[in-house]
């Protein structure tokens, strides 16, 4: 086992820098040996952050290929704009460098097949960094489902509901990739936060698979009205038409008969939510309401109505035993590392698997299956909400692959 991992970060925008400053520089067993971004000011800010935290000056470059010339490089994090995730990751895997790849939707099914085939040829360790799989409530519900508390799971739902109008409209100013996507594409462009935990709960690619989807899009009005009300702030966008519908609903069918519903909702005024919900024959879980209902407890005097099952997960301890031990022992420092602790847990798992030579729990097949939703939803919407068949990136191995835990430490 290697004591310390020499890691480079490729892509230092909002997400990459947030992970660097919030998680990576705080880990004693991670050495930051390289930084890459196409913008010099981002490189300088990141380099200063590493220097302040580690008292070292690290290698910086605007060409991601130069990162792989670093001696004793153990791993890279790819956190660039969505369009470059797969290109850079395939390059890294071919170079034999273990890769943690940030999330986003895909643009080409062929690119996803290239990712899968490259991994199968090289066997270079790869982990898809879907942090919502490591959120406290999602992990609790997944473990409860695995232990049969909900009975037979019939349906699950989730959403990426987040008012991003300011972020999208300021894309050119802030050098953010979402703007160009919303101008030109209509799809579920960011499906992995909601589908990730659901896919793990339903054992997709490990005994189950997604079969087909249908996507429906509303019209696009939110961004245009938002911009027209702020003409002085976004003069270059006044009069622009956006392709992206304000609400995209997607329904997925599974090989074992379950259904999944997803929603993208990012261009209307609203509160943040992922709407993670699990419906089974013996109970359910609803994230937004912090509500657990189990028929097995219904007959007891204390819990005789649905209302009595309301539990504020962060304050109550009733269902804490269904969390992994690492989550039950979480520290305030870990919770503050980003997104309520889930950034810490996903990177801790990547590092521990890398050091111990373990299989990554969110693998290349998960990445391809979750990212392809953007492509398939785009095709479905363009074809009048026609059903679209999912590619099987495991090529039949989903029948024999076994489920595995998300946390090994």
Write a brief structural summary:
With 409 residues, the chain is α/β, with parallel strands linked by helices. 34% of the residues lie in helices and 18% in strands.
What is this structure's SSE topology?
Layout: E1 5-10, H1 14-22, E2 30-36, H2 40-54, E3 59-61, H3 64-67, E4 75-78, H4 85-94, E5 99-101, H5 109-122, E6 126-128, H6 136-146, E7 153-161, H7 165-169, H8 171-174, H9 178-184, H10 192-201, E8 210-217, H11 222-228, E9 247-254, E10 259-265, E11 277-280, E12 283-286, E13 291-294, H12 325-328, H13 332-335, H14 342-356, H15 364-382, E14 388-389
Parallel strand pairs: 1-2, 1-4, 2-3, 4-5, 5-6, 7-10
Antiparallel strand pairs: 7-11, 8-9, 8-14, 9-10, 11-12, 12-13
Helix pairs in contact: 4-5, 5-15, 6-10
What does this entry look like structurally?
By secondary structure, the protein is an alpha/beta fold. The chain has two domains: 5-130, Rossmann fold; 133-330 and 363-399, 2-Layer Sandwich (Dihydrodipicolinate Reductase, domain 2), CATH 3.30.360. 34% of the residues lie in helices and 18% in strands. It has 15 helices and 14 strands. It has helices spanning 14-22, 40-54, 64-67, 85-94, 109-122, 136-146, 165-169, 171-174, 178-184, 192-201, 222-228, 325-328, 332-335, 342-356, 364-382; strands at residues 5-10, 30-36, 59-61, 75-78, 99-101, 126-128, 153-161, 210-217, 247-254, 259-265, 277-280, 283-286, 291-294, 388-389. The strands form two sheets. The chain has an eight-stranded mixed β-sheet with strand order 13-12-11-7-10-9-8-14. Strands 3-2-1-4-5-6 form a six-stranded parallel β-sheet, sandwiched between helices. Helix 4 packs parallel to helix 5 (109-122). The protein is globular. The two termini are 14 Å apart. Mean pLDDT is 93; it is low at 303-316.
